[in-house]
Amino acid sequence: MYGVCGCCGALRPRYKRLVDNIFPEDPEDGLVKTNMEKLTFYALSAPEKLDRIGAYLSERLIRDVGRHRYGYVCIAMEALDQLLMACHCQSINLFVESFLKMVAKLLESEKPNLQILGTNSFVKFANIEEDTPSYHRSYDFFVSRFSEMCHSSHDDLEIKTNRSPSPLQATEKEKESPAELAERCLRELLGRAAYGNIKNAIKPVLIHLDNHSLWEPKVFAIRCFKIIMYSIQPQHSHLVIQQLLSHLDANSRSAATIRAGIVEVLAEAAVIAATGSVGPTVLEMFNTLLRQLRLSIDYILTGSYDGTISVGSKIIKEHEERMFQEAIIKTTGSFASILPTYQRSEVMLFIMSKVPLPSLHHSIETGKTGENRNRLTQIMLLKSLLQVSMGFQCSNMLTALPSSFLDRLLSSALMEDAEIRLFVLEILISFIDRHGNRHKFSTISTLSDISVLKLKVDKCSRQDTVFMKKHSQQLYRHIYMSCKEESNVQKHYEALYSMLALISIELANEEVVVDLIRLVLAVQEVAHINEENLPVYNRCALYALGAAYLNLISQLTAVPAFCQHIHEVIETRQKEAPYLLPEDVFVESPRLSQSLDQMVIEFLFRQSKISEVLGGSGYNSDRLCTPYIPQLTDEDRLSKRKSIGETISLQVEVESRNSPEKEERVPAEEITYETLKKAIVDSVAVEEQERERRRQVVEKFQKAPFEEIAAHCGARASLLQSKLNQIFEITIRPPPSPSGTITAAYGQPQNHSIPVYEMKFPDLCVY
């Protein structure tokens, strides 16, 4: 029966006859349009026949492909495309299965023309918006095949780029280069990606960059992720950042050039994401970057990625690791510059909390390797912090520099490492400079008219006054101690000058001005007396620093008599001692003098004179007359430095111990350098022992079994109870016998108690 129907066309089903009629006798004539219109009308009228129409077209196409009748293959695909575009009914899903089967057949072919034909049909199908999604379809084959086709090495550029003859594409787009075409496809794909599909879209990109070593050079990788970041929805940006962070962690043992490429791509992506929504990934990003920074330091110190050097281990290239570290620092700065003020403050606090510092509550690694690791970590984290603080604008200094942050930062200024101290000064300058005056003090000089600097000066706000009342002495002390460092070079003095100048402009009221003058005069005294045995250059630099600052502050205060005194001293130095001025000291070849010990008074700024002239203008003359002495803190003791504050503190301590209130005064011990050194070292040792004892107690309660802790506490409770019993026995013991006392062994008298009922009372007590 079926065979008869197949031979007799009139008995064949109508949908088959309609399908057969669209094919001409000569395939070059193309699709028979009138018959195609009839087939389309039939499909719309009887949508339940769509699946059969699709199955029959698929059968014909497979047969024509096998017989190499490619003209009829093109006609069949054209018919399928028209049916897809015309039919939007619920039965379309059944038809799609046959369509995808035919597209897959074309893509499996080795003929480029058939691959292009199948690709174009699939593109048209992808542009159809369906009413309801179909979850049972699988596109794994198409993803794999299209990815394979992307790596085509065909000689013909037109075939290689898969040009589509679709009328939906404009003429201009037909002229696109392969790169432009690929970019447009990637943008369109990512623009349609939903929240849950972003990771699936990013992962193949990362794999492609890994497999083809495209992280270095990083131009292509950066270009790809710029396309991605600008194509996705802004609220999806943090998903891309998270993918890049995870990929960086996964490549933590890859070559430094690869990690540097990922970091720079991350920097570009983060800047774009910050303009939209980064979400909770801000601290996660900085945490990952700082972790990678520490790993890189370990790689440099150990010489390998696994901590040991063996036959199969990779050898570390130190210069590449340095480049990677610089890339991380640059990334932290570029990303932080886009963040709002409150998030930027959190980032700075977070970075500062990672800096290893020697303090009462923070231990650092010991040994040569530990010291190197600590130093490198401190430098890299402070460089990162400096990048983050660049351009930071905050009207309230109490918010910008909270105590928890400032204490740790200034602790770094007490270290012997000159590079670390310079970073701390530059970080503080970045915070204080809120009007862009920093570059105007890059050169230390004694200008006769500072109006040429065009300084931006605002009145000190109430918040700034509160900040200085709380932290001014802390800042002054660290400036003073930094000035006394023997390892200072020109950059340190330039930073100190900028620091003093910016405080005077940004945070100064009359009280602050007085204290700054006292501070600078104390620095001049350090150079003059030279108890620290500073080199000649350092002493001349301190003299020159004082001259430059007092010249600036005198013109800012605009007190004529003050300006006159400063000008007279500077003129005297210009004539007779130019080596005490910045113009001769802070140059490439400084001109110094070896006769600093015979300093005449005319070369010095006199505290009594300054106190007199400023006191007449309303400044606190009593305070001006008082020499500046820095306060002593725990950080100073731990830094093992010798300062005036420490010496005075020790002298006061010795005198208080020998006061007549406690015991008879004995001859005071002679205080020598060795005595001071021993006292400082002993105090540090005691503090270290106390800290170690506390650490052991905490560790015991954290790790010891519960039974051991309970037994320990029980023993202490029993001891306490026995002591209490002794006290109670003494305080509530009955009165002694009227007969007096008895003598015990060794001639010691003892009270002999008798019961109350045996006591004899006087007659007056009897009623």
Automatic annotation (TrEMBL):
Highest rank taxon of the organism:
Eukaryota
Which Gene3D superfamilies does the entry link to? Leucine-rich Repeat Variant (1.25.10.10)
Region described as Disordered: spans on this chain: 157-178
Q: Which family does it belong to?
A: Belongs to the EFR3 family.
User: What is the protein name for this chain?
Assistant: EFR3 homolog B
Which gene name belongs to this protein? EFR3B
